[in-house]
Amino acid sequence: MNIDACLEELNPKLIHWRRTFHAFPETGWTEYVTTYRIYEQLQALGLTVYTGTDVVETSARMGVPSDQELYASEKRASEAGVPEEFLNKVAGGHTGVVAVLKTGKPGPHIACRFDIDALPIEESDTYDHVPAEKEFASSLPGSMHACAHDGHTAIGLGVATWLAKNRDELTGTYTLLFQPAEEGSRGAKAMVEKGWLDDVDVFLGGHIGIEDLTVGQVAATTEQFLATTKFDVHFKGTAAHAGKRPEQGKNALLAAAACAQHLHAIAPHSQGATRLNIGTLHAGTGRNIVPDQATLTGETRGETNELNDYVFQEAERIIHGSASLYGVEAEMKVVGKGTSAVCDPEFTRMLEQASIRTAAITEVLPVLSLGASEDVTHMMNRIQARGGKSTYMIFGTPLPAGHHHPRFDYDEGVLKTGAAAFILLILECNQRGKQR
């Protein structure tokens, strides 16, 4: 099988898919148009495709948007051409797609995961930002693919296309998970709880970028997955006239502001890296009113689950202490959670051996540090707990701006590299399965 010939044939499609998804970025649990477009492509390949409540466990979803936001997103999807019958199946934030290919021949069960959601970021429109220059920048104000999930989705469709074309030469079963709501660590657990990873032998995941590398470099494994907890806090006080009766008010804004300051003073831990960030704070309704409502959103992270728990427990203490200090109430809600994980090291040797079959991979790095959180860890841990093997790769590309930045972009040559890495590891695992 000529891998490079396959990749050259796929490459125009990879770029087209990437740009299509980039131009219509949808945030977690609202990826209705994205889900439909993925579904259409997979159906055309003759794979068995699942959507809606067949894909995610409703009660295991985290950080689902309000009914009003979901309704607005569904209306937008309808206006964009998503059929009503399909929308009914995925309504209420049941986005994401799973595709399954069964060869009917004994062999390993291999699962691959590709995240599909965007971020609430206003994309740059400057002339030196390639998506703006080439006219595929976000068409949705306030939303942007600023973390390469558009590319991950394109790679996933490329892998699906290759699997469908070569099904007669393969053995075993292949499950492709197009996961919603990765941002905020909200979506993977809902797929895990649905049982999609329960009988998988090999799990493959990956990410474009992370570090400023060159196209062709691939890290076969990743370390330093930070465990994380995402939380919302609502402070409820008492409104009052700020001039005539200020003593009758209980100031929720001041409680929230003090809380934010004190949270960033949590002591680091001697046993490893910890993080905390407050991302938003909204409060008050007018300059002459003692504000009775305030909401902040934040996150904790830790190099291990125990370190993350330390930061989160300290955050809880400070949140309720700040509320008490100003005589207001504080309601805290966890809206996302990710764990730590460890890749299986044998994938380094496997990818090194397989990479000689393509020019798309120029160097295999044994390991690269993520230094951030990824809810793919729920999937990796479930598979390893049941005796399977997991890895999470990183695909190198120059980065003109960092992840989660309005000018984030990457070299589209990385799409071919990413597809090559998945395909080669699938072939390597397939061959090892035959040898057993």
TrEMBL record:
Tagged with keyword Hydrolase: yes
GO annotations of cellular component type: cytoplasm
Alphabetical GO biological process terms: folic acid catabolic process
Gene3D superfamilies xref list: Zn peptidases
GO molecular function: dipeptidase activity; metal ion binding; para-aminobenzoyl-glutamate hydrolase activity
Positions of Mn(2+) binding: 147, 149, 183, 207, 404
InterPro entries: Amidohydrolase, Bact_exopeptidase_dim_dom, Peptidase_M20, Peptidase_M20/M20A_hydrolases, Peptidase_M20_dimer
PANTHER family found in the cross-reference section: PEPTIDASE M20, PEPTIDASE M20 DIMERISATION DOMAIN-CONTAINING PROTEIN
UniProt-recorded name of the protein: Amidohydrolase
